[in-house]
DNA sequence: CGTGTTATTGATAGATCTCAAAGATGGTGG
DNA sequence: CCACCATCTTTGAGATCTATCAATAACACG
């Protein structure tokens, strides 16, 4: 059972931002206080409006954090990759989760109850500072997306969205960069504020031009430079 | 000179979230380390991409935090009111300010250099926790706006934007609630992701229906309930 | 009273959504 | 191994919202 092995691995928290700068004994203490959660593809770590009782760090796999509107429309707030924290609300005063976290591939996460992580943060103030740093980064990221939504046309937004996916989860393959988890056209639409129809049309046009290669829930960027040109709306060279 | 009087006021930081839970001596220490800045209407506390060297709490007045795109379009990230912190980047690892803070009415702010506030946060860990709480709230707020931008039509977004202004800076006046600082149609457009033309048309239609009363850089909500109905897209009663 | 800013309003064009239908794709069970 | 089914994707046509272009009007300030 991989659970046992993982629990014994002392280096598990090493590259995790939230625990950065923590001395080894602190890391051991944190690990000892954590519990493991396995999340099968499609399974949810927590749901929107549910009581925020735990804070997590993803160990392996990938999740998406989504919000649904009262009308039932869904949007993707962000994707979470290995070593990233999620469910931060449990740490910073919120009572309920503002979104739903769903595994998009089989995943493993380390979890701490609200009380546990609170106590840890009390003992090791660095944790709070690190968490704040991460939240600052996310706030800026969200503000950038807001700015894009307000000022850019759909095609540019899609380009920006995919560029972000590439940066976060791109894997070099022969002849391009593959997004390393299943993404549907619908997902991209929910990420960029459009419809799957428009995404499909746009991507097809790009494929025509050799910018990307498409598959079912699969996307390979063949020409990253062209993507940047679209995202930044640079003039084609005359 | 009001500066002197203000500096002596021991209750200045009392209702300020960032310093919540701090013992009186800590507050004195914080106050002693702060410097005052007066900001005339239109003056900027800091500018986008400038080195993030200070952290502020607004004492009186109101600011707007904006971002400009490479193309020169401006959007309003948020308005800051009394007792709110701004320039938080200086505290959480960022090197440059992601936006510009401009006074929309004559304002007074308390400032701390990056080093000073860092030292304070070291001594009083509660400060970091409070700052994190506030940032969590702002992150959620920004995510809500992102969701609105992605899922709602212009009229609803304007309604939501104005509802937010009312909540943040509404002042009861006879026959309605007045936004307590000058807002132009352009401002509302930059806040809701549309053009001043569309804002003007929409507000004029609302005025026709008695929902709002308009003036030059002035807006009074006559019928807050109707505004909610528009914002939530509730059906009109049949 | 001029002047610059802010706001209103009309006409038009274009991007994008909506509606609709058919075409792939991959997994599952017989 | 093949047929079937659910899901995902593509593509077309039309409707609609909203930006854009353009001009005028109202207002505040010196």
Automatic annotation (TrEMBL), chains A, B:
One of its GO terms (molecular function) is DNA binding. Residues 18-105 form the Cyclic nucleotide-binding domain. One of its GO terms (cellular component) is cytosol. Keywords: DNA-binding, Transcription, Transcription regulation. Residues 152-225 form the HTH crp-type domain. It comes from the Bacteria. PROSITE patterns: CNMP_BINDING_3, HTH_CRP_2. InterPro entries: cNMP-bd_dom, cNMP-bd_dom_sf, Env_Response_Regulators, HTH_CRP, RmlC-like_jellyroll, WH-like_DNA-bd_sf, WH_DNA-bd_sf. Pfam families: cNMP_binding, HTH_Crp_2. This is Transcriptional regulator, Crp/Fnr family.
